[in-house]
Amino acid sequence: MVRYLLFKYLRFDRSQPFIALSAILAFLGVSVGLMVLIIAMAIMNGFDKEFERKLFTMNYPITILSYIKGGIDKDDVDRLKTEFDHLKFSPYISTQAIVKHGNKLEGGLLFGVNFDDEKQINSVVKEALSNTTPSGFEILLGKGIADDFALSLNEKVTMLFMQLSAGGLVSMPTMKRFNYVANFSSGLIAYDKAYSYTDVNALAKILGYESGRYDGIHIYSDNPKNDIIKLNQNLSPGQRAVGWWEQNGNFFSALELEKRALFIVLMLIILVASLNIISSLLMTVMNRRQEIALLLALGASKSEIKKSFFVQGVVIGGSGIIFGLILGLFGVWLLGSFDIVNLPADVYGSSKLPMELALSDLAMILIGAIAIVLLSSYYPAKKASNVDILTTLRNE
After folding, report:
1. Measured between alpha carbons, how far is 197 from 188 in angstroms, rounded to an integer?
2. 234: DSSP letter
3. pLDDT grade, residue 110 (50/70/90)?
4. Is 275 helix (H, G, I), strand (E, B) or coil?
5. At a CB cut-off of 8 Å and minimum separation 6, what does 76 contact?
6. Is the Cα dihedral 238, 244, 250, 253 positive or negative?
7. Which pLDDT does position 113 carry in this prediction?
8. Nearest to 179 by CA among 101, 103, 95
9. Burial annotation 199-210 (CB, 10 A radius, 16+ → b, else e)
């Protein structure tokens, strides 16, 4: 009975073409809505992961900070290397500085590091210094600064430090000329125009640090959220370990909120498309009232009638979900494999559209779509089973 009615009512009826058109629109609406939702979630998740990778590299998984200037010494570093031999450490000195070349000025943050250690934990620095290693008063600049200043390799740049030095009757900012030997590109213009690196011993001389004193330690960890707990338990007073996710918590919270809002808004497309399922089934019920009444009078149960129309709605919506899933996955593959959309790399961190569809997102999309289709099919099916046999046959 259910199969017979399903195929009968799904066939095109020339006398009522609008019913078939409404069913087709419902099918296409669900398909397009699901496809758009899958692609949008893949793009959002791709941008999340891309920014996370960039921030992970330039912010370091874990950073140990000291509340006191130069509050970390070589003994602290050696002790941590012994106790946490699975981690990679790069102690550093940092200071705010202004890069000057000609009449141009650019403010930023200058790190003094041991480049052999830094290459072990920072892939951007390692790639930039594949052919050279700065020593003495040589500097590694971000590509943003180098391009703005139109610098050529081995040109001199002047660094102005906030530390004051006596100059006649007034105090003057400390200035030192550095030899520009290489540049790095992190993919994020905010870092490429703000960060620069030089030898830790050279910067220590400028800032007046004792040998073996540092402001902090950059640490690479494969499992930073667990290691940070153990590190904080073994640090000296006045020192604290912070994770990259703590330093950028507001940024990722905003991305997550935007992702959820987009999911809800795009799910409304499927909800609107499901209204066509309701209207299509209700029109079928109203058009077939006499047939339904006859079937009930001949012994068909209400549950069979309800199931017939419910399955009809599920077939329309379910086929739309399957087709939309195929289109969505194909769209994710197509946009992720070919440079169909080109992005400004200095804004988005990548010139290629990042596509990364998480299984959890896909599961949420499918569960939400299936729930909407099931709810949309239930009301018309219940309406069909409640047809009044005597009134319908007497009047029609």
Report:
1. 17
2. S
3. very high
4. helix
5. 217, 236, 239
6. negative
7. 93
8. 101
9. bbebbbebbebe
